[in-house]
Structures are given as C-alpha cells and as structure tokens.
Write a structure and sequence with these properties.
Layout lengths: L17 H9 L1 E6 L4 E3 L7 E7 L2 E6 L5 E7 L4 E2 L1 H6 L6 E4 L3 E7 L1 H7 L1 H27 L2 H16 L1 E3 L2 E5 L4 H8 L3 H13 L3 E4 L2 E4 L2 H8 L1
Antiparallel strand pairs: 1-8, 2-7, 3-6, 3-8, 4-5, 4-7, 9-10, 10-12, 11-12
GO cellular component, one term: cytosol
Pfam family, one: cNMP_binding
Keywords: DNA-binding, Transcription, Transcription regulation
Length: about 220
C-alpha cells in the first residue's frame, strides 16, 4: 500500500500524537472519493466529520445569485465538517475533491472530543485560527486590487503545496480560472488579466492547471 503523504503543518492531524491518531482512526472508517466528487454538500445535515489523509479539496459556498465563492483549499491532515459534526446544524459549505482524495470518516465526533480533552482544546485553537484567516481575507478584498489578491493566493499555494523546480517553485494547481476567481472574489476576466500581468513581470509562468513561480519574493511584494 502506498503510504499517505505527511499532513500539512498546522492542520488538525499534524497536531495529534500517535496514540490520538490511532484512537481517531479506530473510531472511523476509511473512504475515497474521485476527482470532482462532492464530499459534503452545503445545507445537508450530517453527523460525521472527515479527516483528510491524501489529496486536496475546495470548500465553497454559493451566493443567492448562484455565484460560487471558494472559501478555502484544504490538503492532507485537514479536518472537515467539524462545525456541523459538533453542532448538529446543516453544512455551511460544499466540499469538492480537486483530485482523488482519501480520508477517515468519524461519526459522533463530539464523543471522541469528550474522551480526548487535549484534542478538544487543539480544535478550539484551530477554529480560532480559521476565524482570523477569514477576517484577514475580508480585509484583503477591501484593500487589495485583483492582481494583489491573486498574488496572495498563489503565494499561499506555493508555501503549502509548492515543489522546487528548475529556477522556481511549481504548484500543480487543481483549480480552474473560474475557481481561482471564486477564491479571490473577482471575475474570471479580471483573474485572467491579473495572471497575464504577473507573467509579463516575469514572476510566474502558467500552464494547464499549473503555475511555476520564478520570483516568490517578488510575488510576495506584489501581494502586499
């Protein structure tokens, strides 16, 4: 069996001890989804959470007008569906597999937290971090132009998923331009123009579902 990739630093699974991971795995069951599959659907009522062990997903919601807003990209080690799993309220977003993904489905997650007080505190800290990140993104939407927001998201992807390549950092980007637009709060046309501007500056090179960043510091400066 191919081993799962290591969890992303700072994601839920990376914070647990080996014993806590073993108890969590024992409390759940493994599942797999193909690329493009809906893992969780906004509005659904469900009593389970998912700990992602491989692959990446997008978390999104739709406006009243039907526009998709991408809220986050999550990778190995992420905990998904925890709010509805704890509160018994409907899902607040849709989770879609950007590539084949695997994870552990855990039902009655609240019972697991009752038995593992340290994990409950860690989860509280993780949720506070997500709220801070959400606040930061709202500030970005008001303070940055589209190119700045696109640069910010590319820097985030490079830092989380980038792989060194000749003269740069390659990001296998499992997002379409429409999805990148939904993640930056811009139109597809504005995102296309922003990418062209970053290419013209020699900061990046784009291809089908991939980006190579040649000047990460320059991209960070443009993001700011």
């Amino acid at each position: 069996m191919t081993p799962h990739p290591s969890p992303e630093p700072g994601e839920f699974l990376s914070l647990l001890t080996a014993d806590e991971i073993a108890d969590l795995t024992a409390a759940g069951r493994k599942r797999r989804w193909d690329r493009g599959a809906t893992v969780m659907a906004e509005g659904d009522t469900a009593d389970w959470v998912l700990v992602l062990t491989s692959g990446r997903v997008k978390v999104s919601s739709h406006t009243a007008g039907g526009t998709e807003v991408v809220l986050a990209i999550r990778g190995p080690g992420a905990l998904l569906g925890e709010m509805s799993g704890i509160s018994d309220e409907p899902r607040s977003g849709t989770v879609t597999a950007l590539e084949p993904v695997e994870g552990v489905v855990v039902r009655d997650f609240a019972a697991f937290l009752h038995e593992h007080g340290r994990v409950a505190v860690l989860l509280l800290r993780l949720l506070v971090g997500r709220l801070r990140d959400s606040d930061r993104k709202r500030i970005e939407y008001g303070a940055f132009d589209t190119t700045g927001r696109v640069a910010t998201r590319l820097v985030e992807l490079a830092e989380r998923f980038g792989e060194p390549t000749n003269g740069g950092v390659k990001v296998a980007l499992p997002l379409s331009q429409d999805e990148l637009a939904g993640w930056t709060g811009a139109s597809r046309e504005a995102v296309s123009k922003a990418l062209r501007s970053l290419r013209d500056r020699g900061l990046i090179e784009t291809g089908r579902r991939r980006v190579v960043i040649y000047d990460l510091e320059g991209l960070r400066r443009r993001a700011r």
